[in-house]
Amino acid sequence: MPTPVKSVLPVVLLGCGGVGRYLLRHIVSCRPLHANQGVAIRVVGVADSSSLLVADDVHSSGLDDALLTHLCAAKAAGSPLSSLLGQVSGNYQLFRNPEARSKVIDAATKLGRTTGLVLVDCSATYDTASLMKDAVDHGCCIVLANKKPLTGPYEDFQKLVSNFRQIRFESTVGAGLPVIASVTRIIASGDPVSRIVGSLSGTLGYVMSELEDGKRFSEVVKTAKSLGFTEPDPRDDLGGMDVARKALILARLLGQQISMDNINVESLYPSELGPDAVSTEDFLESGLVQLDRSMEERVKTASSRGNVLRYVCEIGSKGCQVGLKELPKDSALGRLRGSDNVVEIYSRCYESSPLVIQGAGAGNDTTAAGVLADIMDLQDLFQRTA
Amino acid sequence: MPTPVKSVLPVVLLGCGGVGRYLLRHIVSCRPLHANQGVAIRVVGVADSSSLLVADDVHSSGLDDALLTHLCAAKAAGSPLSSLLGQVSGNYQLFRNPEARSKVIDAATKLGRTTGLVLVDCSATYDTASLMKDAVDHGCCIVLANKKPLTGPYEDFQKLVSNFRQIRFESTVGAGLPVIASVTRIIASGDPVSRIVGSLSGTLGYVMSELEDGKRFSEVVKTAKSLGFTEPDPRDDLGGMDVARKALILARLLGQQISMDNINVESLYPSELGPDAVSTEDFLESGLVQLDRSMEERVKTASSRGNVLRYVCEIGSKGCQVGLKELPKDSALGRLRGSDNVVEIYSRCYESSPLVIQGAGAGNDTTAAGVLADIMDLQDLFQRTA
């Protein structure tokens, strides 16, 4: 006999493209597992960039699993949420922007201080930040896979983490890898974290480790693109801004009151080859090769010292740096091959030899799994019913 | 202005030798940090193997920090708890065994279903198991660094984890390394863990990696002993039982309903050289060298295949094995040097490349830090007061 459900977690999801869609699939497929653990996740609303699908009565019911499954299929096919209207029956309503936003606030207001609500942000925009801040004011819990609300003005970060037990953001750094959770544990135990060094871009991890074999930079980047490891324009990876956002989140987690402006970010291409000057096509065809020579020299210089080059973020007493760094071949970061992420955490307990966490740090499935683990980790804040 | 305290966590600690003593020190030194996080840990009782020191009124007050500091100093000097009686003033009482045990149950009964209570086991005995089970019945939370209550009869394990949100046991495996927390997250996200492979003995990790350099087994074990890496009788490490206990905890966490009897444990010494047949001194002087030849051969055979030997536990669909295993030189386990622990976790999300967690897996400071992180992780189950 399964354990009767004890905790109900109402959820509103912002962003149901890649990660969000996988999250909904995971929620539906995990129902029996979660019931065994005494938890039921009730999805009361799902929003994409233009609309919100919300349950008729958010207090008493959620969107049913058949609807969520339809929704996932529609999003996978590239259709917007609004395409479901009229096609699928059920006890839901659809609101378009800008009304959709106020309806999310409605749900947050209704549920935040009664049953509780988890507002989950799997979008990739800065636009959700004010919504998330409002939700915090209404007593809601917050789970983010979206880095942007945490990497805007410091005041926004401060606001979002002001009730630290009600926010989780594991999937903003290293997808599902337990980096934030581990750093949070270490800090809570009074073991001061002195330094974090990480390779937090699967793309750049792959590129830098391939260079060791004597391959040319331009070739490796093109191969990475053909393997689907890069953004459509590889400069979005090579510029380092995505790594910088993750570094900023870690730095702020360690208590550094800094912003993107305070981070030294080394771009692997010069501004003359930037998106404003050169098209993606031209960059791939004739821009990249211009970088081969200098990269080859840097790799050789490192190698002559027994080191390898890695694109890392480093957060420590001197602030936060993002860029290429020479590292010993036999360190956790130096040994890294392929597209895994690696994070080294140094503290009193992990002083001479760091705590190392390594594994796949990207992918919709893994990122969504991290978000779901975060949601489940909030369960004790929700009322239990016998 | 510091945040006013919101959650009070009453704690009774069993075992205040090595790890327990460090825990008390950490609790005292973390007061300002925890106050900032809205948490106050109230130590209402501390027990060693013969006595219990308990606050006069467990409902309203704890043992004060001056007393806890005295207590740590006494235990560090090898004195029993009872030596404090009369020497240190304060609002506490001291009970000796067997009365001490019933007084712990008293506190559990009084606090378990009212303010809540965390019963922390930092002892190293099976004797606490029934006490911990009683505490579960009284609604208490449980935190263990002690492996033994979790590695006795399966029914005991089942009872202790029956309310899974109220138990933490991170420090039973890999000290403070976030192994249990990470596996629990992965399971909660519906990502089924298929296999865990780990090097969970710093001693055996050190011994096996040193053998690669061509050193003799007997020499390496003696060096490990002189460095303080082994138990007083190194056979306590070489027999593999400590690793087997950790493996059993991981296997049970993955849902395997097994017991120690079901684990194949390879001992690195034969029964003819066991404690019943040979004294520690004789084992070190003349027993160990008898093992050099066969170990040398096994290391060479592995090396000829590009592999290294590691003493690992492996938990998977075929149950649970503990012993020497040939592993690729360039795997996370194969690359391991020194006394770090390493755990590789395989699941759907971490299928071809595992999630790897590596770092110091022993030491009182680190183990106590893991226990404190566990206690802090329970805070949402305790009443908050404005």
Please provide a written account of the structure:
- Two copies of one chain form a homodimer.
- Helices cover 39% and strands 21% of the residues of chain A.
- By secondary structure, the first copy, chain A, is of the alpha/beta class.
- The first copy, chain A, has two domains: 7-176 and 366-381, 3-Layer(aba) Sandwich (Rossmann fold); 193-360, Dihydrodipicolinate Reductase, domain 2 (2-Layer Sandwich).
- In chain A, the strands form two sheets. In chain A, strands 4-3-2-1-5-6-7 form a seven-stranded mixed beta sheet, with helices on both faces.
- In chain A, β10 and β11 form a beta hairpin.
- Chains A and B meet through α8, β13 and α16 of A and α8, β13 and α15 of B.
- β13 (355-360) of chain A pairs antiparallel with β13 (355-360) of chain B.
- Chains A, B: GO terms for molecular function: homoserine dehydrogenase activity; NADP binding.
- Chains A, B: This is Homoserine dehydrogenase.
